[in-house]
Amino acid sequence: MSFRSLRFAFLLFLSLLGSFSLWGQDGAVERQPYLDLRRYYIGFSLGLHLPDVRISNSGTVNSTGGRLWADAPIWHPGFSIGMIGGVTLVPQLELRLLPTLHLGDVPVVYTDGQKEVERLTLRTSSLQLPLELKWSAVRWGNYRPFVVGGGYAALQLGARSNDLLHLRPMDYGLRLGTGCDLYFSFFKLSPQLTFHYGVANILETRRPDLHDDPRIRFTEAVTGGATRMLLFSLSFE
Predict the structure, then answer these.
(1) Which end of the chain has fewer CB atoms within 10 angstroms, the N or the C?
(2) 106: alpha, beta or left, given left = phi > 0 and alpha = psi -120 to 50?
(3) Cα–Cα dist 123/8, whole Å
(4) SS3 191
(5) C-beta separation of 48 from 191 below 8 A
(6) 8 Å CB contact between 203 and 168
């Protein structure tokens, strides 16, 4: 996931956020003026995400006498659904726990430096448990911008032991995002854009089960991988 792509996504989101801001100022009545005075709250979220795996290649000669390089060149959108539980620490600062199910996959392409040799699908579905702080600006009419930051742990789902690229069961990392609370008569809607940065090596490179299998060259070509994700979500509280 390149910096240029991330910059474009954030600029697009900020433009949408500006449109929401103007929409939130329609009418002089401030909806649910006491909503943010609550101590605890719950909600749910729906979203779309772009998963990615940053693969580190070994570049060494494999057991068949050749070299292979792996990359994840294409984004496949995935679906996310989760719950939200929060506690207000001070009027503008909240602590939130967001157990979320992410369903998706990442295409991985192998080349020998000249042509494509193999194309695999890496299942990246996971049950993620983020813990984050949410800092909100002073409410203006019926909208309130915010930023979030924190960490997460994730349990990988759907990986099979005989996959050529096998994911380790646990992942963890950092997340940073921005969004805006929009206040309606009966609920609060919060569009949010969040970037996830995995810091763990998620690929299992020790594969004794493939010792006598010529396909082990696909495992020998990589030394590790780290997850990345760009998530757009809509939260309802």
Answers:
(1) C
(2) beta
(3) 26
(4) strand
(5) no
(6) yes
pLDDT at 26: 46
Rounded Cα distance between 38 and 88, Å, is 7
Residue at token pair 């157990």: 99
pLDDT tens for each residue of 195-236:
999 999 998 877 776 677 777 788 888 889 999 999 999 999
Chain-centroid distance of CA 218 in Å reads 26
- Checking phi first, is residue 228 left (phi over 0); if not, alpha (psi -120 to 50) or beta? beta
Q: How far is CA 7 from CA 13, 37, 163, 171, 195, in A?
A: 10, 35, 34, 25, 11
Tokens coding 195: 């970037």
Q: Tokens representing 180?
A: 């805006």
Phi, psi of 7 (to 5 degrees): -60, -40
Which CA distances in Å does 109 have to 10, 39, 69, 157? Answer: 27, 49, 8, 22
